Amino acid sequence: MIANINLSFEEMWEKIIACDQKYDGLFYTAVKTTKIYCRPSCSSKKPKKINVEFYHDINDVENAGFRACKRCQPEVEHSPHTELVKTVIAFLVTHYKQRLVLQDIANHVGVSSYYLDRLFKQETLETPRTYLEKIRVDKAAYLLKNTDRTNLEVCYDVGFQSPSNFYKVFRRLKNCSPSEYRNLDC
C-alpha cells in the first residue's frame, strides 16, 4: 500500500467527484456525518465537501470509527464486481454452444444487460460477446487440430450461428482461416 500519494484535498475531491477508479486503494473518502468510508470510484451520492475527510490507509480510517460502504466495498482487496464477472465467465464457458444474447447472460446473473455490458468491459476490457467469441474460437481450434470434423461441423459445434461469422471471427483472433490453422500451425 502506498503511504502518501501527495494529492491535496482539492485534488482528492476532484477524483471522487469523477469516480476515478485509478485511485482506488490509494486513499479513502470518509464522510463524517454518516461514519462511512468509500473508494474514490464509489458511485454513491456525493457528500457535502465540508463533511469529507481523506485517509491514505484503510486501518487509519477504520480506527477513526468509520465503517465500509456496502456499495463499493473498500475493505475488499479486489474489485467488488469480481464475483459477478466470474459468474458470467463460468456461464459463458458452460453455455458457449448455445445461442446466447446479452439479455440471456444478464438474466442469469440478475442485472440489466446495459449494466452487465458496461461492468464486464470495465473489469475485463472486453464485452461478453467478444469474450464468448474467444471461448468459441479456442474450442474450435482444439477441434480442428484433434478431430476429423469438417470446418462447418466445427462451426456449429462451438456455437456459431453462421459460417461467415465463424470464419471472420476465427481469422481476427487467430490470424488465419480455420483450414489454414488445421493444416499449418498458425
UniProtKB/TrEMBL annotation:
<feature type="domain" description="HTH araC/xylS-type">
    <location>
        <begin position="86"/>
        <end position="184"/>
    </location>
</feature>
<dbReference type="InterPro" id="IPR004026">
    <property type="entry name" value="Ada_DNA_repair_Zn-bd"/>
</dbReference>
<keyword id="KW-0238">DNA-binding</keyword>
<keyword id="KW-0805">Transcription regulation</keyword>
<dbReference type="InterPro" id="IPR009057">
    <property type="entry name" value="Homeodomain-like_sf"/>
</dbReference>
<dbReference type="GO" id="GO:0008168">
    <property type="term" value="F:methyltransferase activity"/>
</dbReference>
<keyword id="KW-0804">Transcription</keyword>
<dbReference type="InterPro" id="IPR035451">
    <property type="entry name" value="Ada-like_dom_sf"/>
</dbReference>
<keyword id="KW-0010">Activator</keyword>
<dbReference type="InterPro" id="IPR016220">
    <property type="entry name" value="Me-P-triester_DNA_alkyl-Trfase"/>
</dbReference>
<keyword id="KW-0489">Methyltransferase</keyword>
<dbReference type="GO" id="GO:0032259">
    <property type="term" value="P:methylation"/>
</dbReference>
<dbReference type="InterPro" id="IPR018060">
    <property type="entry name" value="HTH_AraC"/>
</dbReference>
<protein>
    <submittedName>
        <fullName>AraC family transcriptional regulator of adaptative response / methylphosphotriester-DNA alkyltransferase methyltransferase</fullName>
        <ecNumber>2.1.1.-</ecNumber>
    </submittedName>
</protein>
<dbReference type="Pfam" id="PF02805">
    <property type="entry name" value="Ada_Zn_binding"/>
</dbReference>
<keyword id="KW-0808">Transferase</keyword>
<dbReference type="Pfam" id="PF12833">
    <property type="entry name" value="HTH_18"/>
</dbReference>
